[in-house]
Write a structure and sequence with these properties.
The chain has one domain: Roll (Thiol Ester Dehydrase, Chain A). Helix content is about 25%, strand content about 40%. It is built from 3 helices and 6 strands.
């Protein structure tokens, strides 16, 4: 099981979006849960000097996605819908998203995630639905 989590963590960190754009990302995966952290940088800011909504979305979706991936060992999963709610702007520090599986069936999974600032204050939350893809997790695709 731990081997599966480590492979998912490596796959996440090696993806171009994370190794190039979100280059301070870290990830820790456990059974049914994932935690993703990121150092806030001005490169993520919108015109008002706080992180853009796409950063909130990415971290929340990724944390929920990998919480589900932790319990699905053979296939990639796909996000079919994801709703976010932004509560507070973030301008500095380190942020982290925690995703947890809330429902699982044969082909459908629901996960929730929350994003916290450096002081531990929740700044956003989201809920997503995920399904199994037909793509197997293999060494050829970085797993």
């Amino acid at each position: 099981m731990k081997n599966h989590f480590k492979k998912l963590e490596e796959m996440y960190l090696k993806a171009n979006i994370n190794s190039i754009v979100f280059d301070s990302s870290t990830i820790l995966i456990k059974e049914g849960e994932a935690k993703i952290s990121l150092d806030v940088s001005e490169k993520y800011f919108h015109a008002l000097g706080a992180i853009h909504g796409c950063v909130y979305f990415k971290l929340l979706d990724d944390a929920a996605y990998f919480s589900v991936s932790s319990i699905v060992k053979e296939y990639f999963i796909l996000t079919t819908s994801f709703q976010i709610n932004i509560l507070k702007p973030v301008k500095r520090g380190k942020i982290h998203a925690i995703g947890k599986v809330k429902f699982s069936s044969k082909n459908l999974f629901t996960a929730q995630s929350s994003l916290f600032n450096e002081q531990g204050v929740e700044v956003a939350f989201g809920t997503g639905n995920f399904v199994l893809s037909k793509s197997e997790l293999t060494k050829n695709i970085g797993y």
